[in-house]
Design a protein that fits this description.
156 residues; Small Protein B, Chain: A; 7-stranded antiparallel sheet; two-stranded antiparallel ribbon
Length: 156
């Protein structure tokens, strides 16, 4: 029993796509399950994933994660997975139809935000319906952040 508790207390590294928050304005977040191979799960638990440059796409009424690099797991040997393969996302039919309707509108895209393990130990991914930011929007955000820092420094 004590061994099981030790496993749960072990921190799992967070895999967050920080660039998505800089490049996109997040409109709505959706949590989805991931269909993974055993070596992929072990690699995720070790923190071997990169979400940079990845995106989600609807193909034939199913949602897929494309371009996500989950590193190969060294101990898997010859039973390793392809690091850049497409991975199926598990969503309810209602969620898929809602996302499809939004994606048909101009400017929306599906962006993965983070991969995490829930309380039950299942791998989940948080994807977002997002609109791309223009260059001047990004600059305005940076200047606002700097002004807020200056104001807080002045108040102290």
């Amino acid at each position: 029993m004590a061994e099981h508790e030790d496993k749960k207390s072990k921190p799992i590294p967070k895999m967050v796509n920080k660039k998505a928050f800089h490049d996109y304005e997040v409109v709505e977040k959706v949590e989805a399950g991931l269909v993974l191979v055993s070596s992929e799960v072990k690699s995720l638990r070790a923190g071997g994933a990169a979400l940079n440059g990845s995106f989600a796409r609807l193909i034939d009424g199913q949602c897929w994660l494309v371009g996500c690099n989950i590193a190969t797991y060294f101990q898997a040997g010859s039973n390793n997975h392809d690091p850049l393969r497409r991975r199926k996302l598990l969503l309810h039919r209602r969620q898929i139809t809602k996302i499809t309707a939004r994606l048909l509108q101009r400017g929306f895209t599906l962006v993965p935000l983070r991969i995490f393990f829930n309380d039950r130990g299942l791998a989940k991914i948080e994807i977002a319906l997002a609109k791309g930011k223009k260059k001047y929007d990004k600059r305005d955000k940076i200047t606002q952040r700097q002004q807020n820092k200056d104001i807080n420094r002045y108040r102290k």
